[in-house]
Write a structure and sequence with these properties.
Number of domains: 1
Helix content: 25-40%
Number of helices: 8
Oligomer: single chain
CATH class: Alpha Beta
CATH topology: Rossmann fold
Largest sheet: 7 strands, parallel
Strand content: 5-15%
Strand order of the largest sheet: 3-2-1-4-5-6-9
Shape: globular
Length: 303
């Protein structure tokens, strides 16, 4: 499970030094891809949380494939840094809109700005999200609501407002929601599990409701995917994350980005209502304890 750091436990997490995690900008610009260079030429792709982590890898890859990329996130400085990096290394400058997906008014303004600039939205990638590892019994009301509002409600506002515009224009649409592997629960991330499960079954429902409008809705569920977000984890978790899947290794942001493009490109034209799981088999193998294994379960080298 990859963690975005939009939401922290009350009191904040202390900053500690970590080795570099994830890809550099130059690596994102040159990493091999299975896709041809012009695959998304002329398409407009909106990516929430596109300035960092998996979203940044998606923005790089979609730009490399010729798309008009639009990134939205809360922090303007991070958006600008990613814009500059993609322009420098890829030669295309994405559009960037600082905003919060928790605010439906800001969602509407962002989407209208995209349509004013490009005239269309072909794919919406709901990547923005955040949570913090903590035992469920210790969640504060504020912490619970923050994670639910960001991961579930924010995703819903993005989906609904984009779909309204597709339906009004008589245009086809494609939504890819980044979720998590929730089939076996998520100890120490119960708030995330509840929200992501909601997104999964919301997506399945909408894939049926919105099929008459030629709108596809799918999810991608990453497992242990290394990004710069790994810096928030304790050392104990970092040393055993890979043991939570039978391949016993970490995935990377490129694994997720290429799965998303598969659904966004013509290759995904007959896929809707599905969850593409990118987790090295974690959902059928191990349990991940991001805040440390409780003594009760610390038998046999649990992950």
């Amino acid at each position: 499970m990859n963690v975005h750091v939009d939401v922290e436990p009350e009191g904040g997490a202390k900053s500690v030094e970590r080795p570099r995690f994830g890809f550099t900008d130059a690596e994102l610009a040159t990493h091999p891809t299975v896709y041809r260079d012009d695959l998304l030429l002329g398409k407009t792709v909106v990516i929430s949380g596109g300035a960092t982590g998996m979203g940044k890898a998606m923005a790089f890859l979609a730009s490399r494939l010729g798309a008009n990329v639009v990134m939205c996130a809360r922090t303007a400085e991070k958006l600008t840094a990613t814009q500059d990096a993609i322009e420098q290394h890829v030669g295309r400058r994405p559009m960037a809109v600082p905003m919060s997906i928790r605010d439906p008014d800001q969602v509407e303004m962002m989407l209208d700005a995209v349509l004013a600039e490009y005239g269309q939205i072909d794919t919406l990638i709901n990547n923005a999200g955040g949570q913090f590892p903590q035992n469920a019994i210790d969640f504060s009301r504020k912490g619970w609501l923050a994670v639910m509002d960001l991961n579930l409600n924010g995703t819903w506002w993005m989906m609904q407002e984009t779909a309204k515009r597709w339906v009004a224009a008589g245009a086809a649409g494609n939504i890819v929601n980044i979720v998590a592997t929730v089939e076996r629960g998520m100890p120490q991330s119960a708030h995330c599990c509840a929200a992501r499960s909601g997104v999964i079954y919301l997506s399945k429902t909408l894939s049926t409701e919105w099929a008459p409008h030629n709108i596809r809705v799918n999810c991608v569920a990453p497992g242990i995917v290394e990004t710069e977000g790994f810096a928030v984890y304790p050392d104990e978790a970092l040393t055993r994350f890979h043991l939570a899947n039978p391949m016993q290794k970490r995935g990377d942001a490129w694994d997720v980005a290429e799965a998303v493009i598969y659904l966004a490109a013509p290759s995904g034209k007959f896929i809707t209502g599905e969850v593409v799981t990118v987790d090295g088999g974690q959902n059928q193998w191990g349990v991940n304890w991001p805040a440390g294994i409780p003594d009760y379960f610390n038998i046999g080298g649990a992950a």
